[in-house]
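Collaborator request, handled under Task 6.
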Amino acid sequence: MQFIDEAKIFLKSGEGGSGCVSFRREAHVPRGGPDGGNGGRGGSVIVESVPGLNTLIDFRYQQHFKARKGEHGKGSCRDGKASEDLIVKVPIGTQILADDGETILYDITQEGERHVVLKGGDGGKGNAEFKSSVNQAPRKATPGWPAQEIWVWLKLKLLSDAGLVGLPNAGKSTFLSAVTRAKPKIADYPFTTIKPQLGVTYVDGSEFVIADLPGLIEGAHEGHGLGHRFLKHVERCGVILHLVDGTDDGSGAGVAERYQVIRNELEQYNPLLAEKHEVVALTKCDAMLPDEVEAKKLELEEVCGKSVFIISSVARKGTEELLRALLDQVKIFRHEFDKDESDESDVEAESDEGVQDQEFG
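Structure tokens returned to the collaborator:
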């Protein structure tokens, strides 16, 4: 499936139906009085997150979403029918921004999350609503409230348990294809991956989602290369799997320097990225001599301050051990995330109790 992570769409709610001017006409009832019904409410525009979506490609083919307007009121005090709300379904991880592309209106992070972006117009009142002791035959009715409309940007940030980061051609796509059923494009030149790829891996009876992100280069935090467009996806990854190419990539930089380039870009883009759980692996070990592998492993461990895994995705060497270590970090992240969610719920509950105490105390 093609990955589209930005789309601009037009939203419009439904107008309210107009009220009706009508008078009761019936045999032997010469002065039936007003019986015009009220107009129905127009449909609202609601954005809802649904599982199973990981792209905004559908919005490339449909950019305009308009809810229906409410029915007009009718005689015999019959109110117009309210229109159904228009539900716009988006992937989890979608941000809704104003037309300026910067102001965040909603940040959708949970499955089933719903937000009323535009409210439908209320229906107008029929002349039966204006009957009074001094005006028993009003000929007045009001139109329905007008619709609301807005242009918004949809921007998708991938939600995954683990995200693959590294310099271009570090072996990220090869690793993803080796441990999941995802089929990313693989070639021996940089920037093969230009769209994020998602894959689900299974280890020891557990499963988690891995995102293959395009390679970063020095200056990515300033927008160089694919820059900001894909650094934002790292923000939604629970754990970072940092892959470092162990072979000579022609740049003359050692593995420690290559590692530091990516860490610096993450920190410059968002300091919080430096606090994420990180697992480091030295890739393409099948193309190096054992002594060379050990030397580069020690060099990398010295700069990152943690144990480094040695893998070959092509030969499927070391991938199982790496996945188990990655799963351990994912479980820690999930536990911390659930704890934070629980703490926020407790704070909201305490706040609600405080409001009730003030109202009834």
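The cover message to the collaborator said: "The domain at 160-339 is CATH 3.40.50.300 (Rossmann fold). The chain has two domains: 1-156, 160-339. Please let us know whether this matches your experimental observations."
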